[in-house]
Design goal:
6-stranded mixed β-sheet, 8-stranded mixed β-sheet
Length: 528
């Protein structure tokens, strides 16, 4: 397959721009109806065209953690502001050019030839070349980077440079999620990466440069005047400000101190819905899911009947309405509706049934006298979800004690597999190629997951699905169903609700978008 490089959006007609962008990200309006995409062109038409200048302040609920630079988490919003990736997905998971201007996949799926843009420079003026792509892949292969797509990076067996801007990437075997890697993998500066993971210097090719990182307060970014997309970005500066308390974030939005956030949730979203000062949109392709995790080599979570009891005990609709503010889909399976692995039968496999949950708990032989720790990150969404889970479990006889963790500390426990017996969190990676979930996401990784679940059958199914060249073919889809069946039966991860990133934006802000890994793109964003 060969893909041509597109012209910048301002050189395209409105119709061509929409077609080149794959119709963008489909958004849901506050009423749940399809709001459609917003390109730089069609937003500009409503307000007389894009305007240059101004500072955008984004409200976030967790601070930048340099050590997690190469790990997708709630701290990844800034990735696409400072860096670029090789490709970007459209709404149908079709790769579109970014730093890779075109590519040609070998028929046997064992290599891909990338043509790279020749007009890209880093913030320090150095020219972007094929050596930077080689470094980016090799960097993710390192265990200390804790990159979820490390397995896919390690499937790369070699490189063949054909000058500075053409590269053959060779694979040990076909993988169905190579383009997931190419959208996930930020192209960092190989000469300053050690400074990057310490937060000292973030040298990228993206639309904004790092001005300052003040721990606990946030990141300050300024416009990259030598950005490779002509006349972009429109904004002069971006501030990512940390508001750890939901009330403080709400106040910042209402007062105009912040004009954009993806961190408002639950009742806080509900209070903003009726305001005429904001637009609230949900990315319909999903950004992750809320779940209960179980450490399966800890009693009583080592009992499958006990885990099934939890799966029936939790009211998923209540999770959606109260914890997610109505923005989500109650689901026993991890997949959003846009996924090739989605089915209604999987979504509704476990429904709220306290009576059945009590029967399963009784059959498990688990004592109801003990009190179990229920961990969760100290973030409003997951605190609210954990409180609902705690209440529902108590109704069937399972007593728990909530244990909140700082988000960065919680992420480290997730990676290291040192969670308590039960925990509540959110996971990503179901919104891209289905095999990525089970080879990349820490809760699901077939080789080493947070729950300590291992199964030869699981490994075989996941590896077979991952090595399919056609990720959407009949064989791949049959494998996805088998993986879903196993996940639902083993219930080491008990999914509760699929959620999409919810964007709260001041009406004067136009054009922000997210990629599939929740990297914020402000190339075409502007203030009116």
């Amino acid at each position: 397959m060969r893909t041509p490089s597109p012209l910048p959006l301002d050189q395209l007609s409105r119709r061509s721009a929409l077609r080149a962008a794959g119709a963008g990200a489909l958004l849901l309006g506050t009423g749940g109806g399809l709001a459609g995409c917003r390109s730089a062109v069609d937003t500009g038409e409503k307000v007389g065209g894009p305007k240059r200048g101004g500072t955008l302040t984004i409200g976030v609920n967790v601070d930048f953690t340099p050590a997690l630079l190469f790990t997708q988490s709630g701290q990844s919003l800034q990735q696409r502001l400072i860096y670029n990736t090789l490709i970007r997905y459209d709404d149908k998971l079709k790769p579109q050019p970014e730093l890779a201007s075109s590519w040609e996949y070998a028929a046997d799926g064992r290599s891909i030839t990338l043509k790279l843009r020749e007009d890209v420079t880093y913030h320090d003026g150095r020219t972007f070349t094929a050596d930077d792509v080689i470094f980016a892949v090799q960097n993710l292969q390192k265990p200390e980077r804790s990159a979820q797509l490390a397995a896919t990076a390690r499937a790369v067996s070699g490189f063949e440079k054909r000058g500075d801007h053409e590269l053959v990437v060779k694979l040990a075997h076909p993988v169905s999620n190579l383009f997931d890697l190419f959208e996930f993998m930020i192209i960092t500066d190989r000469h300053t990466v050690d400074d990057a993971v310490k937060g000292k210097k973030l040298n990228g090719t993206g639309p904004f440069r790092l001005k300052k990182w003040q721990p606990g307060t946030g990141l300050s970014l300024t416009r990259n005047d030598t950005y490779w997309i002509p006349e972009r970005p429109y904004l002069d500066a971006v501030e990512l400000r940390v508001y750890t308390q939901p009330d403080a974030l709400l106040s910042a939005l209402r007062s105009g101190q912040a004009q954009l956030s993806y961190s408002a949730s639950g009742k806080y979203l509900a209070t903003l819905k009726g305001s005429g000062d904001f637009t609230i949109k949900q990315y319909a392709t999903g950004s992750g899911a809320v779940y209960v995790g179980a450490t399966v080599d800890d009693s009583p979570a080592d009992s499958k009947a006990f885990r099934h009891a939890i799966a029936y005990a939790v009211d998923r609709d209540r999770i959606v309405e109260q914890a997610l503010g109505g923005y989500g889909l109650a689901s026993a399976a991890p997949w959003p509706k846009s996924s090739p692995a989605y089915s209604e039968a999987n979504r509704s496999h476990y429904t709220y049934n306290p009576g059945k949950a009590r029967e399963l708990l009784k059959s498990s032989g688990v004592s109801t006298k003990q009190t179990l720790t229920l961990g969760h990150p100290n973030v409003a969404l997951y605190t609210a979800a954990a409180e609902i889970v705690q209440y529902d479990l108590e109704q069937i006889g399972i007593k728990t004690e909530l244990q909140p963790f700082d988000p960065a500390a919680f992420q480290k426990k997730l990676i290291s597999g040192t969670m308590p017996t039960l925990w509540v969190n959110g996971h990503a990676f179901a919104q891209v190629q289905p095999s990525t979930l089970a080879v990349s996401a820490y809760p699901f990784n077939e080789a080493k997951n947070t729950s300590h679940f291992r199964s030869d059958e699981y490994t075989e199914l996941v590896q077979d699905a991952w090595r399919q060249k056609d990720a959407d073919g009949a064989k791949a889809r049959a494998l996805y169903q088998k993986i879903s069946d196993l996940l639902l039966d083993e219930a080491f991860i008990i999914d509760l609700a699929v959620l999409g990133s919810v964007q709260v934006a001041a009406k004067k802000l136009q054009g922000p978008t997210l990629n599939k890994f929740s990297y914020l793109n402000l190339d075409d964003a502007y203030l009116v």
